[in-house]
Every structure is written in structure tokens, then in C-alpha cells.
Amino acid sequence: MNVSHPSVHPVEAPPPLTDGGNVPRLRMKDIQGMPGTIGGLILRFSQFVFAVVALCVMATTSDFPSVTAFCYLVAAAGLQSLWSLLLAIVDIYALLVGRCLQNYRVVSFFAVGDGITSTLTLAAACASAGITVLLGNDLGICSQNHCTEFETATAMTFLSWFTTLPSFLLNFWSLASR
Q1: Where does the Casparian strip membrane protein domain start and stop, copy by copy (predicted)?
Q2: Which H or E run contains 43?
Q3: pTM (2 decimals)?
């Protein structure tokens, strides 16, 4: 029977520590889109813009409070815009001062917050899309409602979610790779 045998390669021992064992740990490079990078700031700014546009378009209609899904969209877009604005300010501070935001607690906070806001934003966009399809296609009462505004706000909320998802995935990946 032919069985392959592993080859053993000797490995040299690391040099002894002379400075008391304070060797700096190697960190993962800052990938664009992570907190404290220009890509992260662009993602946060686009999240903020899309959420504010969705919020403003929905708030300008007079009959959005009559549908629970649209009220939920306004609440989720408001939360998303506040969260994105807060983290954009933190990113601007980190870029101006030159701070690295790869602290375990900071990344954990960002990952949990992005996860919560992205889940709420996606749920609100899906619920609003369902109601918009119901009003426009199934019931055919767009002439009595603001279907164009509802569709625009729903699309902006989906775009806000599409820009929130990379932030969440990068933060979660950074957290999981520690």
C-alpha cells in the first residue's frame, strides 16, 4: 500500500525578547469602508443622504400616517439618518486627528449598531414596498394616493440599506477576525 509521508521542515525558534516582551501586535490593514477611512466616510455620508431623502419625501405626503408601514419607514429612516450622521462625525474626527478606530469596543459598537439599523431599514423598505405594490398594482388607487412619492421613499430606503450593508459586513468581519 502506497501512503504518502509528510515531510518535516525544521523551524527556527524566534529570537529571545530583550525589551520585556512588549512586542507590538500586527494589525490588519485599514480596508476602505471600515471606520476611520475615507471609504467609511463616503459610505456613512451616502447612508445619511439616502435616509434623509426618504424621510423628507415621505414626510411631505399628507397621507403617510394612515399606513403603519409608512410610519415605520419614517421611523427607520430617521434612526438610520441619525446613526449615519453620528458615525460620519466620528469618521471625520478620526481622519482629521489621525486616530485608528480599530479598537475592539469601538468596532463592536459599530457592528451592533450597523446590524440593528440595517435590519430595521430593510424591514421598513420591504414593508413599504409591499404596501406600494398593493396600492398601485393590486388596488389601482394611485390616482387617490401619492404613489410616486411612496415609491421614491421606498427606493431611497433600499439604497440606504444597500450602503449600510457593506459597513456592517466590514465591521463584523473585522470583529470576527480578531
Answers
A1: 34-162
A2: helix 38-59
A3: 0.79
Cα(94)–Cα(41) distance, integer angstroms: 10
| 158/50 Cα distance (integer angstroms) | 9
Could you tell me the residue ranges of all domains in the chain?
A: 38-177
Cα–Cα distance list, 43 to 88, 96, 97 (Å): 9, 17, 20
Using alpha carbons, select from 46, 10, 7 the residue that is nearest to residue 163: 46
Q: Among 12-16, 24-28, 80-84, 130-134, which range has the highest average pLDDT?
A: 80-84
Summarize pLDDT for 91-126 with one digit per residue, the tens: 999 999 988 888 889 889 999 999 999 999 999 999
Beta-carbon contacts of residue 50 (< 8 Å; ≥ 6 apart): 156, 157, 159, 160, 163
